[in-house]
Task: inverse folding
């Protein structure tokens, strides 16, 4: 009896992981390429009062996790995005805030500065406990490197007690030396803190004694907006407006007067214009005194 060979059965089609990966790619990218996990765009927005930068993060649609149901072979998509992290904590007790921030400085200075920014900057009180000197010194050492540092220093200098701590920690010299590397809002905040520190006699004296104070303030008048000009003019008034100023300044009054006149021709706040006008009068008086002193000296020599 002739037997017929048994027909070969077709093997069931198995959908491998490669198929699902190909399907997922086609869903989110028409050309079949895998989309990047995220894209970063940076843009800058500036105004006459402040200069502020921000970064916008634009996330592409996430590739879904897919699993196969063994019972009905249906494709199930699941979204397993992690939940948003809780907002960072704030510490409203300033003594506790200073203690924790000072402790963090030895291990994580960036976290310490961020904690101070979150807790102190939004609503800084004028009545503050004294900031620990080590914390103030670390803050002034980071003025040009860490963005929150100028915010924190200005917030602390709103308090009379912490102005004194800042002056004793060398913050006046730190601001003068860091200012040329600052722009926009950080520069304005640093100069505002400097003007506040100079309301103390010790702060004003430290500014007058600094060899770079006048050239740096002239530079800041030229590069900053209205508020920055106002604070730089205020610092120059501290140098040239004191009794016996002729023994302190490091640049001829007539040269500084030309720089002030040029600054007042541009954008400047009303308060800055009043301070600048008064400073010009002081500089003219000093120039006249120098001329008279030179003539007297020449006459005595003859």
Result:
């Amino acid at each position: 009896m002739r037997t017929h060979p048994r027909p070969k059965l077709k093997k069931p089609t198995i959908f491998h992981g490669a198929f699902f990966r190909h399907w997922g790619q086609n869903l989110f990218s028409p050309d079949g390429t895998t989309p990047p996990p995220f894209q970063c765009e940076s843009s800058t927005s500036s105004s006459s009062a402040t200069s502020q930068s921000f970064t916008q993060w634009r996330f592409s649609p996430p590739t879904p996790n897919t699993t196969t149901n063994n019972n009905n072979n249906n494709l199930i998509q699941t979204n397993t995005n992690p939940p948003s992290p809780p907002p960072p904590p704030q510490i409203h007790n300033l003594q506790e805030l200073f203690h924790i921030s000072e402790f963090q400085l030895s291990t994580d200075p960036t976290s310490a500065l961020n904690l101070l920014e979150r807790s102190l900057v939004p609503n800084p009180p004028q009545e503050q406990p004294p900031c620990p000197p080590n914390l103030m010194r670390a803050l002034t050492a980071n003025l040009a490197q860490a963005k929150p540092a100028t915010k924190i220093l200005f917030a602390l200098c709103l308090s009379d007690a912490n102005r004194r701590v800042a002056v004793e920690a060398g913050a006046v010299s730190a601001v003068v030396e860091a200012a040329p590397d600052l722009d926009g809002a950080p520069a304005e905040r640093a100069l505002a803190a400097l003007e506040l520190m100079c309301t103390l006699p010790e702060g004003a004296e430290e500014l007058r004694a600094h060899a770079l104070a006048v050239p740096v303030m002239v530079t800041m008048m030229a590069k900053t907006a209205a508020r920055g000009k106002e604070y730089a003019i205020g610092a120059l008034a501290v140098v040239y407006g004191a009794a016996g100023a002729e023994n302190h300044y490091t640049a001829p009054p007539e040269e500084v007067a030309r720089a002030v006149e040029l600054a007042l021709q541009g954008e400047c706040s009303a308060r800055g214009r009043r301070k600048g006008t008064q400073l010009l009068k002081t500089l003219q008086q000093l120039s006249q005194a120098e001329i008279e002193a030179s003539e007297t000296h020449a006459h005595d020599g003859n």
